[in-house]
User: Fold this.
Amino acid sequence: MESRGRGQLTSAAAGQRDIAGQKQGLCQFGKCGRVAFAMATHCCGILCRPPSQRCVKKDVEQDPIVRRVSDMNKLDRMDYRILDVLQENGRLPIKILADRVGISVSPCWQRVKKLEKDGIIRRYVAEIAIEKLQSVQIVLAKVALSKHHREALEFFERNMCAIPEVVECYEVMGQFDYHMKFVVSSIDRYTEIVERFLTPEFGVERYFTDIVSRVAKEDRAIQLRSLV
Assistant:
């Protein structure tokens, strides 16, 4: 009886140690792979596994979501300063950029090149004041599809994204499947697009249109400090 009791205690203690070890492994993995911009739901399957069942490092690194999170973890405050300044003016000479963020030219240039290589800086573009060139109309459309399998969604997206006047297209959750932004030369042109593309032939069940009367705010720069 005494021996059996000790065995049960030993087994219980070992179980507690295993649980503690799993928790410790989870915390350690959570610290080295903490989430910056990725949704928590994407990483739960990895973070919640005990060490004995966790993927090997090579498999984890191949996961695109984990790789993006890892890339974000490599950025420091100086990188974010550089990104903030470049969002305001992507054509700044490297010397002025270095002065703005408070470092010397060489490390500033190296940081910018690394941000470009890692795909964090996608491209440099010119923001055009289209209203100074010609009169345009912004139209927002909410679209509900009749079918919701992946092939139907991809078919709709391919056709919508091929329309030059469609400048933004978002798949959304809720009553509608897509929110879209059109920049057209006139309401007549928007009507032409609607009559041709927002039809049952392209899987559209119904849609609603909002005509923008005035732009209250339009800022494409992302306030990084509010997100990290």
